[in-house]
Write a structure and sequence with these properties.
Layout (H helix, E strand, L loop, with lengths): L4 H21 L16 H12 L7 H12 L8 H13 L18 H16 L1 H7 L21
Length: 156
């Protein structure tokens, strides 16, 4: 029994030092989940959803401006923030950050109330004249027309 004690002690030392080795040897930053990130405020969540559901492409400068005005507006953003702030936040957490104009959203995975909120938000965004002009590749509302025969061509 005495001749097994040194091996046993070495084994216990090795096992006891494993947590220290893992703590220094592992890079835990890349394994952080989205749950570790600080939660978005209701305004930031609504802004994220507007950018994601809108017709803009990556790099469009007008998208950020539109999203900021949408959230600040009592007519547009006011419909979603006071009563549905928690639902807007939970809906925004379901989608990755930094995406603009997703091509499709699987509504089957969403609860009924979040699905209805998302559909209302999409119909609200696309009913605004600024977005409709952007989708049709028309000049912005109130801008001078450079082409006098623009009305003779079909929208893009």
């Amino acid at each position: 029994m005495r001749n097994h004690d040194p091996e046993r002690r070495q084994f216990v030392k090795l096992v006891a030092s494993l947590p220290v080795a893992f703590a220094f040897g592992c890079d835990t930053e890349r394994y952080r989940s989205a749950a570790d990130a600080p939660p978005l405020s209701p305004e930031e969540s609504l802004r994220k959803l507007v950018l994601m559901l809108g017709p803009w492409r990556a790099g469009d400068t007008g998208a950020e401006d539109f999203a900021a005005r949408f959230v600040a507006s009592s007519y547009a953003g006011g419909q979603y923030l006071p009563g549905s702030a928690e639902m807007v936040q939970s809906l925004a957490r379901r989608f990755p950050d930094g995406e603009m104009a997703v091509s499709e959203v699987d509504l089957g995975q969403l609860p009924a109330d979040e699905r209805q909120l998302l559909l209302n938000l999409v119909s609200h965004i696309y009913s605004l004249i600024e977005v409709r002009f952007f989708v049709a590749n028309e000049p912005p509302w109130g801008a001078c027309q450079g082409d006098r025969t623009r009305h003779t061509r079909a929208p893009a």
